[in-house]
Amino acid sequence: MTREEITSGLAEILEEVAGVNPDDVSEEKSFTEDLDVDSLSMVEVVVAAEEKFGVKIPDDEVQNLKTVGDAVAYILKG
Amino acid sequence: MATTWDAMLAGKSGVSALTEDWAEQLPVRIAAKVAVDPSEVLDRVRLRRLDRSEALALIAAAQAWNDSGLGDSGLDPERLAVVVGSGIGGAQTLLAQDDILEASGPRRVSPHTVPMLMPNGPAAYVGLEYGAKAGVHAPTSACATGAEAIAWGLDIIRSGRADVVIAGGTEAVIHPLPIAGFASMRAMSTRNDDPERASRPWDKARDGFVLGEGAGIVVLESAEHAAARGARVHAVLAGAGLTSDGYDIVQPHPESEGGGRAMRAALRSADLDPLEVKHVNAHATSTPVGDMAEIAGIRRIIGDHPVLTATKSMTGHLLGAAGAVETIATILAVRESVIPPTINLDDPDEGLTLDVAAHKPRSLDIPAALNNSFGFGGHNVALIFTRA
Question: At what angle are helices A3-18 and A68-77 packed, to 10 degrees?
Fold first, then answer.
């Protein structure tokens, strides 16, 4: 899967869970600062991403995923 | 709200058949759903984080708040309180998330589950929406909840803790489990083949209540605060009485001993003579025992003169929202000098010796009116409204 495919997959999840406009989603955006995803919604994003991309994202790791790009990199590694 | 009032005056029943698959096996397959689904009012993402009871409370609160004109009045948030209760709380969320837990495991349970199912959720969301900082409260007294919330609001204003209180009740439990539970108690009507005639308070053929859903919210304001800003006042909440039966967990006292004491306490609280109470919006849920017990209480404390109605004949029983929705019907009756009808009262019980606005609305000059609410657990709340 390419970085672009993962970013667009995350954009779909963010729209479903938190009503984020997919056009606003890009790698440099911070989930909380730029996209206004609150902590409970972030949990939903993580669980949906695990399912969509077939990866495990432990709770300890979630705090390191500040930006969409951080999540893309983690999912690519996984 | 205006459309609900118009439907009441037209004697229109909100009860219909439950056509969902899950209703097939239930002994009760009728209910009174809200006419406008929350999905038509609130956006999709917001609704994912709200129990249906919370969504209904927010929608009703918005209507009440917009009507109050307080939005741009510069009200100090520390003088704004909220009292909104629910009889059963976020049961639909609890049951839906349990299905997810069973089917997919704990990690799939929504992180919004707790704020969706907690009984103070509707009050808390309404408080957040309007920035209330004088206190957010959530009384729970089954079918007396909505009225109890309004009584607490009166106490808060009288004690000086706030100038304005958003108060009322909400309920959304049209789901197989609560229905099965009430049906197992033999508390519900099983007139499944004739939904609009199923809720028939005081009628000889009544066979139990019909479950409804919805929310009723009012904005209470101190007389001084309302006068200072030139507010449009619909009616005055003149007094409230709250008592408990100490009798049985679900059975009403046959003479409405505790209900009568609540009515007397409300009269004292309002400093009114019973003869001034011209109209009673009764609790009357269409159950065999409860309907006639309340009549005994009204006759003993208020007298034989008031004109009664039971709007549950049209709305069904909204449990924790009932007292608040009926408060609004009572306020509008006082303001408009017209009592909404009791439908389906075709063959009145012999014990019904009081005048009821049966079938058609009744025009009447109403200087003061009483609204009764009683709940499982032996909770009794009586509210008295007078003309503004």
Answer: 120
Contact (CB<8Å) B48/A17:
yes
Write out chain B residues lying below 8 Å of A47, CB-based: 107-108
CATH at B84: 3.40.47.10
Catalytic hit among A23, A34, A36, A38: A38
User: Distance between CA B361 and CA A70 in Å, rounded?
Assistant: 66
Alpha helix locations (H) across B185-279?
223-228, 257-270
ipTM of the complex: 0.90
Nearest to B197 by CA among B344, B341, B317, B356: B344
Q: Of B43, B44, B112, which has the smallest distance from its Cβ to A40's Cβ?
A: B112
Token look-up 């206190």 returns B135
Q: Answer whether B374's CB lies under 8 Å from B241's CB.
A: no
Q: Write the DSSP assignment of A18-58 as a string of letters.
A: H---GGG--TT-BTTTTS---HHHHHHHHHHHHHHHT----
A41 CB neighbours in chain B (<8 A) are 111
For B264-305, the pLDDT digits (tens) are 999 999 999 999 999 999 999 999 999 999 999 999 999 999
Q: Give the separation between CA B1 and CA B8, rounded to whole angstroms.
A: 11
- Cα separation, B277 vs B267, in Å, equals 9
Q: Return the residue matching tokens 């209910």.
A: B31
Q: Count up the domains in chain B and report the number.
A: 1
Q: What amino acid occupies position B153?
A: G
Chain A interface residues facing chain B, Cβ-Cβ under 8 Å?
17-19, 40-41, 43-44, 47
pLDDT at B195: 98
Q: Where are the beta strands (DSSP E) in B153-293?
A: 164-171, 214-221, 235-244, 277-281
- Tokens at A58, concatenated: 């432990």
Cβ contacts of A43 on chain B, cutoff 8 Å: 111
Residue positions counted in chain B = 388
Domain extents in chain A? 3-77
CATH of A3-77, one of 1.10.1200.10, 3.40.50.410, 2.70.180.10, 1.10.3130.10: 1.10.1200.10
- Boundaries of domain holding B46: 2-387
Whether B43 and A17 lie within 8 Å, measured CB to CB: no
Round the average pLDDT of chain B to a whole number and report it. 97
Prediction pTM value: 0.96
- Asked if B361 and B329 touch (Cβ cutoff 8 Å), the reply is no
